[in-house]
Amino acid sequence: MAVETTVLVVGGGATGVGVARDLALRGVDVVLVNRGRLGGGTSGRSHGLLHSGARYAESDPERAAACLAENRVLRDIAGGCVRDTGGLFVSLADDDPDYFAEKRAACEAAAIPVESVDGETARERVPDLADDAERALRVPDAVVYPSRLVAATVADACDHGATVYTHAPVEALHVSEGRVAGATVGGDLDAQVAADYVVNATGPWAGSLAAMAGVDVPMRLTRGVLVSVDYDRLGPVLNRCRVPDDGDVVVPHERETVLGTTSVPVEDPDDYETDQSEIDRTVEECAAMLPAVRGAEAVRTWWGVRPGYAPEADRGGRAVPGEFALLDHAGDGVDNFASIVGGDLTTHRLTAAAAADLVCDYLGVAADCRTDERPLAAADDPDRLDELVAEFGAVNPADVDVVH
Ligand SMILES: Cc1cc2nc3c(=O)[nH]c(=O)nc-3n(C[C@H](O)[C@H](O)[C@H](O)COP(=O)(O)OP(=O)(O)OC[C@H]3O[C@@H](n4cnc5c(N)ncnc54)[C@H](O)[C@@H]3O)c2cc1C
Questions:
Q1: CA distance 306 to 319
Q2: Closest CA relative to residue 354, chosen from 42, 333, 342, 288
Q3: Which of 147, 187, 375, 379 is deepest in the core (most CB within 10 A)?
Q4: Residues 322-372 pLDDT 10s
Q5: What CA–CA distance (Å, rounded) separates 369 from 371?
Q6: Can you tell me the distance from the alpha carbon of 200 to that of 223, in angstroms, rounded to the nearest whole number?
Protein backbone atom coordinates (compact mmCIF):
# COMPACT_ATOMS: atom_id res chain seq x y z
CA MET A 1 0.00 0.00 0.00
CA ALA A 2 1.16 3.59 -0.64
CA VAL A 3 0.07 6.69 1.27
CA GLU A 4 0.78 10.28 0.20
CA THR A 5 0.50 13.33 2.41
CA THR A 6 1.89 16.81 2.82
CA VAL A 7 3.09 16.26 6.41
CA LEU A 8 3.81 12.99 8.17
CA VAL A 9 3.76 13.31 11.97
CA VAL A 10 5.46 10.39 13.70
CA GLY A 11 4.29 9.88 17.28
CA GLY A 12 0.83 10.00 18.83
CA GLY A 13 1.54 11.37 22.29
CA ALA A 14 0.30 14.79 23.37
CA THR A 15 2.95 16.54 21.26
CA GLY A 16 2.31 14.62 18.04
CA VAL A 17 -1.49 14.85 18.21
CA GLY A 18 -1.06 18.55 19.03
CA VAL A 19 1.03 19.05 15.88
CA ALA A 20 -1.48 17.12 13.76
CA ARG A 21 -4.40 19.20 15.11
CA ASP A 22 -2.54 22.47 14.63
CA LEU A 23 -1.62 21.68 11.02
CA ALA A 24 -5.09 20.36 10.20
CA LEU A 25 -6.66 23.57 11.56
CA ARG A 26 -4.35 25.52 9.25
CA GLY A 27 -5.66 23.50 6.30
CA VAL A 28 -2.54 21.36 5.86
CA ASP A 29 -2.93 17.73 4.77
CA VAL A 30 -1.50 15.59 7.58
CA VAL A 31 -1.08 11.90 8.40
CA LEU A 32 -0.09 10.81 11.92
CA VAL A 33 1.33 7.37 12.62
CA ASN A 34 1.87 5.96 16.10
CA ARG A 35 3.68 2.80 17.07
CA GLY A 36 1.10 1.47 19.55
CA ARG A 37 -1.88 2.95 21.41
CA LEU A 38 -2.35 6.70 21.21
CA GLY A 39 -0.81 8.26 24.31
CA GLY A 40 0.86 4.93 25.12
CA GLY A 41 4.28 6.58 25.51
CA THR A 42 5.03 9.15 28.19
CA SER A 43 1.80 11.14 27.84
CA GLY A 44 -0.46 8.37 29.08
CA ARG A 45 2.00 7.43 31.82
CA SER A 46 2.41 10.89 33.36
CA HIS A 47 1.16 12.35 36.62
CA GLY A 48 -1.63 14.42 35.11
CA LEU A 49 -0.72 17.64 36.91
CA LEU A 50 -1.79 20.70 34.95
CA HIS A 51 0.94 23.00 36.19
CA SER A 52 0.12 26.57 37.19
CA GLY A 53 3.82 27.34 36.81
CA ALA A 54 4.35 27.55 40.58
CA ARG A 55 6.61 24.49 40.54
CA TYR A 56 9.10 26.31 38.32
CA ALA A 57 8.49 29.89 39.46
CA GLU A 58 11.87 30.46 41.16
CA SER A 59 13.99 28.08 39.05
CA ASP A 60 12.73 28.87 35.54
CA PRO A 61 10.40 31.89 35.24
CA GLU A 62 10.06 31.46 31.46
CA ARG A 63 8.81 27.92 31.85
CA ALA A 64 6.53 29.03 34.69
CA ALA A 65 5.00 31.70 32.43
CA ALA A 66 4.43 29.12 29.67
CA CYS A 67 2.72 26.76 32.15
CA LEU A 68 0.48 29.53 33.49
CA ALA A 69 -0.58 30.58 29.99
CA GLU A 70 -1.24 26.99 28.88
CA ASN A 71 -3.03 26.16 32.14
CA ARG A 72 -5.48 28.93 31.23
CA VAL A 73 -5.76 27.89 27.58
CA LEU A 74 -6.48 24.26 28.47
CA ARG A 75 -9.12 25.25 31.01
CA ASP A 76 -10.79 27.13 28.14
CA ILE A 77 -10.52 24.57 25.35
CA ALA A 78 -10.23 21.17 27.02
CA GLY A 79 -13.41 21.04 29.18
CA GLY A 80 -13.75 17.60 30.74
CA CYS A 81 -10.08 16.76 30.10
CA VAL A 82 -9.29 19.09 32.99
CA ARG A 83 -10.47 19.02 36.61
CA ASP A 84 -10.18 22.33 38.42
CA THR A 85 -8.96 21.21 41.82
CA GLY A 86 -6.63 24.06 42.73
CA GLY A 87 -3.31 23.25 44.34
CA LEU A 88 -1.43 23.67 47.60
CA PHE A 89 2.33 23.94 48.04
CA VAL A 90 2.72 22.49 51.51
CA SER A 91 5.58 23.35 53.87
CA LEU A 92 6.20 20.85 56.67
CA ALA A 93 7.99 21.55 59.96
CA ASP A 94 11.36 20.43 58.53
CA ASP A 95 11.01 22.41 55.30
CA ASP A 96 12.92 25.66 54.84
CA PRO A 97 10.70 28.70 55.53
CA ASP A 98 13.02 30.81 53.35
CA TYR A 99 12.21 28.56 50.39
CA PHE A 100 8.51 29.09 51.09
CA ALA A 101 9.02 32.87 51.03
CA GLU A 102 11.13 32.61 47.88
CA LYS A 103 8.46 30.49 46.15
CA ARG A 104 5.75 32.95 47.09
CA ALA A 105 7.75 35.93 45.82
CA ALA A 106 8.60 34.12 42.58
CA CYS A 107 4.91 33.26 42.00
CA GLU A 108 4.00 36.90 42.50
CA ALA A 109 6.75 38.00 40.11
CA ALA A 110 5.42 35.53 37.52
CA ALA A 111 1.85 36.80 38.04
CA ILE A 112 0.74 33.36 39.25
CA PRO A 113 -2.23 33.90 41.60
CA VAL A 114 -0.92 32.87 45.02
CA GLU A 115 -2.16 33.11 48.59
CA SER A 116 -0.38 32.04 51.80
CA VAL A 117 -2.43 30.15 54.35
CA ASP A 118 -1.45 28.79 57.76
CA GLY A 119 -1.47 25.08 58.62
CA GLU A 120 -4.89 25.22 60.22
CA THR A 121 -6.49 26.81 57.16
CA ALA A 122 -4.75 24.30 54.89
CA ARG A 123 -6.14 21.43 57.03
CA GLU A 124 -9.65 22.85 56.65
CA ARG A 125 -9.19 22.37 52.91
CA VAL A 126 -7.40 18.99 53.29
CA PRO A 127 -8.54 17.40 56.56
CA ASP A 128 -6.00 14.53 56.32
CA LEU A 129 -3.05 16.87 55.80
CA ALA A 130 -0.05 16.14 58.04
CA ASP A 131 -0.18 17.62 61.55
CA ASP A 132 3.17 19.28 60.98
CA ALA A 133 2.06 21.14 57.85
CA GLU A 134 2.89 24.66 59.01
CA ARG A 135 1.90 26.75 56.01
CA ALA A 136 0.85 26.42 52.40
CA LEU A 137 0.55 28.41 49.18
CA ARG A 138 -2.70 28.21 47.24
CA VAL A 139 -2.07 28.23 43.47
CA PRO A 140 -4.21 27.41 40.40
CA ASP A 141 -2.77 23.93 39.75
CA ALA A 142 -5.29 21.46 38.32
CA VAL A 143 -5.57 17.90 37.04
CA VAL A 144 -5.43 16.95 33.36
CA TYR A 145 -6.51 13.51 32.16
CA PRO A 146 -4.01 12.57 29.43
CA SER A 147 -6.13 9.89 27.72
CA ARG A 148 -9.05 12.28 27.25
CA LEU A 149 -6.69 15.07 26.18
CA VAL A 150 -4.99 12.95 23.53
CA ALA A 151 -8.29 11.51 22.23
CA ALA A 152 -10.08 14.88 22.10
CA THR A 153 -7.11 16.50 20.36
CA VAL A 154 -6.82 13.78 17.77
CA ALA A 155 -10.58 13.76 17.18
CA ASP A 156 -10.48 17.48 16.42
CA ALA A 157 -7.53 16.90 14.07
CA CYS A 158 -9.52 14.22 12.25
CA ASP A 159 -12.60 16.48 12.11
CA HIS A 160 -10.35 18.89 10.19
CA GLY A 161 -9.05 16.34 7.71
CA ALA A 162 -6.14 14.63 9.47
CA THR A 163 -5.71 10.88 9.13
CA VAL A 164 -4.45 8.85 12.08
CA TYR A 165 -3.03 5.34 12.09
CA THR A 166 -2.31 3.54 15.37
CA HIS A 167 -0.23 0.37 15.77
CA ALA A 168 1.72 1.75 12.84
CA PRO A 169 5.45 2.02 13.67
CA VAL A 170 7.86 3.80 11.36
CA GLU A 171 10.50 1.16 10.60
CA ALA A 172 12.67 3.13 8.19
CA LEU A 173 13.08 6.66 6.86
CA HIS A 174 14.38 6.94 3.29
CA VAL A 175 16.70 9.89 2.77
CA SER A 176 17.66 10.92 -0.71
CA GLU A 177 19.37 14.09 -1.91
CA GLY A 178 19.14 15.74 1.49
CA ARG A 179 15.42 15.06 2.01
CA VAL A 180 13.31 12.40 3.66
CA ALA A 181 11.62 10.95 0.61
CA GLY A 182 9.39 8.58 2.53
CA ALA A 183 8.87 6.21 5.41
CA THR A 184 8.30 2.49 5.67
CA VAL A 185 5.49 2.01 8.18
CA GLY A 186 4.81 -1.46 9.53
CA GLY A 187 2.15 -2.87 11.82
CA ASP A 188 -1.50 -2.47 10.90
CA LEU A 189 -0.74 0.13 8.20
CA ASP A 190 2.02 -1.76 6.39
CA ALA A 191 2.66 0.98 3.81
CA GLN A 192 5.16 3.28 2.18
CA VAL A 193 4.32 6.85 3.15
CA ALA A 194 5.54 9.74 0.99
CA ALA A 195 5.45 13.23 2.54
CA ASP A 196 6.73 16.72 1.78
CA TYR A 197 7.71 17.13 5.44
CA VAL A 198 8.25 14.75 8.37
CA VAL A 199 7.88 15.73 12.05
CA ASN A 200 9.54 13.53 14.65
CA ALA A 201 7.30 13.73 17.75
CA THR A 202 8.30 10.40 19.24
CA GLY A 203 9.12 11.65 22.75
CA PRO A 204 11.73 9.42 24.40
CA TRP A 205 12.18 7.56 21.10
CA ALA A 206 13.16 10.77 19.23
CA GLY A 207 16.83 9.77 19.10
CA SER A 208 16.00 6.40 17.51
CA LEU A 209 13.71 7.89 14.87
CA ALA A 210 16.18 10.65 14.00
CA ALA A 211 18.90 8.03 13.61
CA MET A 212 16.81 6.42 10.86
CA ALA A 213 17.44 9.63 8.88
CA GLY A 214 21.12 9.67 9.81
CA VAL A 215 20.62 12.53 12.28
CA ASP A 216 21.91 12.64 15.86
CA VAL A 217 19.41 13.80 18.48
CA PRO A 218 21.11 13.25 21.84
CA MET A 219 18.66 12.39 24.58
CA ARG A 220 18.88 12.19 28.33
CA LEU A 221 16.04 9.94 29.47
CA THR A 222 14.84 9.57 33.04
CA ARG A 223 12.23 7.19 34.39
CA GLY A 224 9.67 8.10 37.02
CA VAL A 225 7.27 5.94 39.00
CA LEU A 226 3.65 6.68 39.84
CA VAL A 227 1.49 4.84 42.35
CA SER A 228 -2.29 5.17 42.37
CA VAL A 229 -3.86 4.40 45.73
CA ASP A 230 -7.42 3.81 46.84
CA TYR A 231 -8.07 7.17 48.53
CA ASP A 232 -10.83 9.58 47.46
CA ARG A 233 -10.77 12.35 50.06
CA LEU A 234 -8.17 14.69 48.56
CA GLY A 235 -9.42 18.01 47.17
CA PRO A 236 -6.50 19.98 45.68
CA VAL A 237 -3.25 18.81 44.10
CA LEU A 238 -0.49 18.78 46.74
CA ASN A 239 3.09 19.80 46.01
CA ARG A 240 5.75 19.70 48.71
CA CYS A 241 7.15 23.21 49.06
CA ARG A 242 10.84 22.37 48.81
CA VAL A 243 13.48 22.15 46.09
CA PRO A 244 11.88 19.59 43.68
CA ASP A 245 12.68 16.07 44.81
CA ASP A 246 11.33 12.53 44.70
CA GLY A 247 7.78 11.93 45.90
CA ASP A 248 6.62 15.48 46.24
CA VAL A 249 3.44 15.60 44.14
CA VAL A 250 0.04 14.09 45.06
CA VAL A 251 -2.74 14.29 42.47
CA PRO A 252 -6.42 13.64 43.25
CA HIS A 253 -8.59 11.68 40.83
CA GLU A 254 -12.20 10.76 41.55
CA ARG A 255 -11.79 7.56 43.56
CA GLU A 256 -8.01 7.30 43.60
CA THR A 257 -5.02 9.48 44.38
CA VAL A 258 -1.80 9.37 42.35
CA LEU A 259 1.54 9.61 44.15
CA GLY A 260 4.80 10.47 42.43
CA THR A 261 7.45 10.58 41.28
CA THR A 262 11.17 9.84 40.84
CA SER A 263 13.87 10.67 38.31
CA VAL A 264 16.47 8.02 37.45
CA PRO A 265 18.51 7.97 34.20
CA VAL A 266 17.72 5.19 31.69
CA GLU A 267 19.29 4.35 28.33
CA ASP A 268 16.45 2.65 26.48
CA PRO A 269 12.77 3.70 26.84
CA ASP A 270 11.70 0.17 25.91
CA ASP A 271 14.00 -1.70 28.23
CA TYR A 272 14.84 -0.37 31.67
CA GLU A 273 14.98 -1.79 35.15
CA THR A 274 12.56 -0.74 37.84
CA ASP A 275 13.25 -0.65 41.53
CA GLN A 276 10.90 -1.42 44.43
CA SER A 277 12.79 1.06 46.63
CA GLU A 278 11.69 3.90 44.30
CA ILE A 279 8.07 2.87 44.79
CA ASP A 280 8.48 2.67 48.57
CA ARG A 281 10.26 6.03 48.72
CA THR A 282 7.56 7.69 46.63
CA VAL A 283 4.80 6.45 48.93
CA GLU A 284 6.73 7.42 52.06
CA GLU A 285 7.57 10.93 50.81
CA CYS A 286 3.98 11.60 49.73
CA ALA A 287 2.73 10.22 53.04
CA ALA A 288 4.81 12.85 54.82
CA MET A 289 2.31 15.39 53.42
CA LEU A 290 -0.76 13.15 53.47
CA PRO A 291 -0.27 10.34 56.02
CA ALA A 292 -3.56 8.63 55.10
CA VAL A 293 -2.08 7.37 51.78
CA ARG A 294 0.49 5.27 53.66
CA GLY A 295 -2.07 2.62 54.55
CA ALA A 296 -4.22 2.95 51.42
CA GLU A 297 -4.29 0.03 48.99
CA ALA A 298 -2.02 0.54 45.95
CA VAL A 299 -4.31 0.00 42.97
CA ARG A 300 -1.85 0.55 40.09
CA THR A 301 1.84 1.30 39.69
CA TRP A 302 3.33 2.46 36.40
CA TRP A 303 6.50 4.03 35.07
CA GLY A 304 7.07 6.70 32.46
CA VAL A 305 10.19 7.97 30.70
CA ARG A 306 10.84 11.71 30.36
CA PRO A 307 12.01 12.72 26.89
CA GLY A 308 14.88 15.00 27.98
CA TYR A 309 16.99 16.57 25.26
CA ALA A 310 20.74 16.58 25.93
CA PRO A 311 22.59 18.83 23.51
CA GLU A 312 26.35 18.45 23.22
CA ALA A 313 27.17 21.22 25.69
CA ASP A 314 24.81 19.75 28.27
CA ARG A 315 25.89 16.09 28.13
CA GLY A 316 27.01 15.01 31.53
CA GLY A 317 25.20 17.90 33.20
CA ARG A 318 21.81 17.98 34.90
CA ALA A 319 18.78 16.98 32.84
CA VAL A 320 16.15 19.70 32.48
CA PRO A 321 13.16 17.55 31.55
CA GLY A 322 10.56 20.25 31.02
CA GLU A 323 12.42 22.26 28.42
CA PHE A 324 11.58 21.53 24.84
CA ALA A 325 13.79 21.70 21.79
CA LEU A 326 12.59 22.14 18.23
CA LEU A 327 15.36 20.88 15.98
CA ASP A 328 15.22 21.83 12.31
CA HIS A 329 17.35 19.14 10.68
CA ALA A 330 17.98 21.29 7.62
CA GLY A 331 21.08 22.23 9.63
CA ASP A 332 22.03 18.52 9.71
CA GLY A 333 21.65 18.15 5.96
CA VAL A 334 18.07 16.82 5.92
CA ASP A 335 15.86 19.61 4.62
CA ASN A 336 12.30 18.52 5.31
CA PHE A 337 12.67 16.95 8.74
CA ALA A 338 12.33 18.31 12.29
CA SER A 339 12.36 16.74 15.76
CA ILE A 340 10.49 18.08 18.74
CA VAL A 341 11.64 16.75 22.10
CA GLY A 342 11.09 17.53 25.75
CA GLY A 343 8.36 19.73 27.15
CA ASP A 344 5.54 18.96 29.53
CA LEU A 345 2.05 17.64 29.07
CA THR A 346 0.88 21.04 30.31
CA THR A 347 2.70 22.94 27.56
CA HIS A 348 2.24 20.40 24.74
CA ARG A 349 0.00 22.75 22.71
CA LEU A 350 2.65 25.46 22.74
CA THR A 351 5.34 22.96 21.76
CA ALA A 352 3.14 21.72 18.93
CA ALA A 353 2.46 25.26 17.74
CA ALA A 354 6.19 25.94 17.45
CA ALA A 355 6.63 22.82 15.33
CA ALA A 356 3.61 23.68 13.16
CA ASP A 357 4.99 27.21 12.60
CA LEU A 358 8.27 25.73 11.37
CA VAL A 359 6.49 23.33 9.02
CA CYS A 360 4.22 26.08 7.65
CA ASP A 361 7.22 28.35 7.03
CA TYR A 362 8.84 25.53 5.05
CA LEU A 363 5.67 24.81 3.06
CA GLY A 364 4.84 28.49 2.50
CA VAL A 365 1.51 28.17 4.34
CA ALA A 366 0.45 31.58 5.68
CA ALA A 367 -2.29 30.42 8.11
CA ASP A 368 -1.83 31.22 11.80
CA CYS A 369 -2.14 28.88 14.77
CA ARG A 370 -5.75 28.62 16.03
CA THR A 371 -5.41 25.83 18.55
CA ASP A 372 -5.79 28.14 21.54
CA GLU A 373 -9.14 29.44 20.31
CA ARG A 374 -11.34 26.49 19.55
CA PRO A 375 -12.49 23.80 21.97
CA LEU A 376 -11.25 20.25 21.55
CA ALA A 377 -13.72 17.69 20.21
CA ALA A 378 -16.51 16.89 22.70
CA ALA A 379 -14.66 18.97 25.30
CA ASP A 380 -17.73 19.62 27.44
CA ASP A 381 -19.18 16.13 27.30
CA PRO A 382 -17.22 13.74 29.57
CA ASP A 383 -19.18 10.68 28.40
CA ARG A 384 -18.44 11.47 24.76
CA LEU A 385 -14.81 12.14 25.68
CA ASP A 386 -14.60 8.65 27.12
CA GLU A 387 -16.18 7.23 23.96
CA LEU A 388 -13.46 9.00 21.98
CA VAL A 389 -10.82 7.49 24.25
CA ALA A 390 -12.27 4.06 23.46
CA GLU A 391 -12.66 4.80 19.71
CA PHE A 392 -9.06 5.95 19.37
CA GLY A 393 -7.71 3.28 21.71
CA ALA A 394 -6.16 5.86 24.02
CA VAL A 395 -6.78 4.11 27.36
CA ASN A 396 -3.65 4.50 29.46
CA PRO A 397 -2.62 3.94 33.09
CA ALA A 398 -2.50 7.62 34.06
CA ASP A 399 -6.29 7.95 34.21
CA VAL A 400 -7.83 4.55 33.53
CA ASP A 401 -9.80 4.90 36.79
CA VAL A 402 -11.49 8.09 35.54
CA VAL A 403 -11.89 7.20 31.86
CA HIS A 404 -14.42 4.46 32.44
C1 LIG B 1 6.65 10.00 35.44
C2 LIG B 1 6.29 11.23 34.65
C3 LIG B 1 5.37 12.12 35.15
C4 LIG B 1 5.05 13.28 34.43
N5 LIG B 1 4.09 14.12 34.93
C6 LIG B 1 3.76 15.23 34.26
C7 LIG B 1 2.75 16.09 34.79
O8 LIG B 1 2.15 15.81 35.83
N9 LIG B 1 2.45 17.22 34.11
C10 LIG B 1 3.08 17.54 32.94
O11 LIG B 1 2.76 18.60 32.39
N12 LIG B 1 4.04 16.72 32.39
C13 LIG B 1 4.38 15.58 33.03
N14 LIG B 1 5.33 14.74 32.52
C15 LIG B 1 5.97 15.08 31.24
C16 LIG B 1 5.06 14.71 30.06
O17 LIG B 1 4.32 13.56 30.31
C18 LIG B 1 5.86 14.48 28.76
O19 LIG B 1 6.82 15.48 28.59
C20 LIG B 1 4.94 14.48 27.54
O21 LIG B 1 3.86 13.62 27.76
C22 LIG B 1 5.71 14.04 26.31
O23 LIG B 1 4.79 13.84 25.25
P24 LIG B 1 5.29 13.41 23.82
O25 LIG B 1 4.10 13.39 22.93
O26 LIG B 1 6.43 14.27 23.41
O27 LIG B 1 5.90 11.93 24.00
P28 LIG B 1 5.09 10.55 24.14
O29 LIG B 1 3.84 10.73 24.88
O30 LIG B 1 6.06 9.55 24.65
O31 LIG B 1 4.69 10.19 22.65
C32 LIG B 1 5.61 9.65 21.73
C33 LIG B 1 4.87 8.66 20.87
O34 LIG B 1 5.71 8.27 19.78
C35 LIG B 1 5.43 6.92 19.48
N36 LIG B 1 6.56 6.35 18.72
C37 LIG B 1 7.82 6.09 19.15
N38 LIG B 1 8.56 5.58 18.15
C39 LIG B 1 7.76 5.50 17.07
C40 LIG B 1 7.94 5.05 15.73
N41 LIG B 1 9.11 4.56 15.31
N42 LIG B 1 6.88 5.09 14.87
C43 LIG B 1 5.67 5.58 15.28
N44 LIG B 1 5.46 6.03 16.53
C45 LIG B 1 6.48 5.99 17.42
C46 LIG B 1 5.25 6.27 20.85
O47 LIG B 1 4.52 5.06 20.73
C48 LIG B 1 4.50 7.37 21.60
O49 LIG B 1 3.09 7.19 21.54
C50 LIG B 1 5.68 13.55 33.19
C51 LIG B 1 6.61 12.65 32.69
C52 LIG B 1 6.92 11.50 33.41
C53 LIG B 1 7.89 10.53 32.85
A1: 10
A2: 342
A3: 147
A4: 578 999 999 999 999 999 998 899 999 999 999 999 999 999 999 999 999
A5: 6
A6: 21
Give me ligand 1 centre to Cα 190, in Å.
Answer: 24
State the Cα–Cα distance between residues 236 and 253, nearest whole angstrom: 10
Pocket of ligand 1 (CB under 6 A): 10-16, 33-36, 40-43, 46-49, 51, 169-170, 201-205, 209, 224, 226, 260-261, 304-307, 343-346
CA of 133 to the centre of ligand 1 (A): 33
In angstroms, what is the span from residue 305 Cα to ligand 1's centroid?
7
At 313, the pLDDT band (50, 70, 90 cuts) reads: very low
Mean pLDDT within 309-320: 54
Please tell me whether residues 230 and 101 are part of one structural domain: yes
- Output the pLDDT for position 322: 55
What is the whole-number distance in angstroms between the Cα of residue 269 and the centre of ligand 1?
Answer: 11
Q: What residue numbers bound the domain in which 190 lies? A: 1-48+145-218+310-404
Among residues 256, 279, 305, which one ends one of the domains? Answer: 305
**Which of 202, 257, 274 gets mutated to test ligand 1 (max ligand atoms within 8 A of its CB)?**
202
Structural domain total, the chain: 2
Q: DSSP assignment, residue 241?
A: S
Out of 19, 22, 42, 251, give the residue to mutate to test ligand 1, the one with the largest number of ligand atoms within 8 Å of its CB.
Answer: 42
The residue whose CB lies within 8 Å of the most ligand 1 atoms, and thus the one to mutate among 47, 154, 278, is: 47
Answer yes or no: is 78 within a domain: no
CA dihedral 103, 51, 138, 93 (to 10 degrees): -60
Collapse the DSSP code of 67 into the 3-class scheme (helix H, G, I; strand E, B; otherwise coil) and give the result: helix
Q: Three-state DSSP class for 304?
A: strand
Mean of pLDDT values over 269-295:
97
Cα 194 to ligand 1 centroid, rounded to whole Å: 25
Portion of the chain with pLDDT greater than 90, in percent: 95
Which residue, 288, 305, 322, sits at the end of a domain?
305
Provide φ and ψ at 196, rounded to 5°: -80, -25
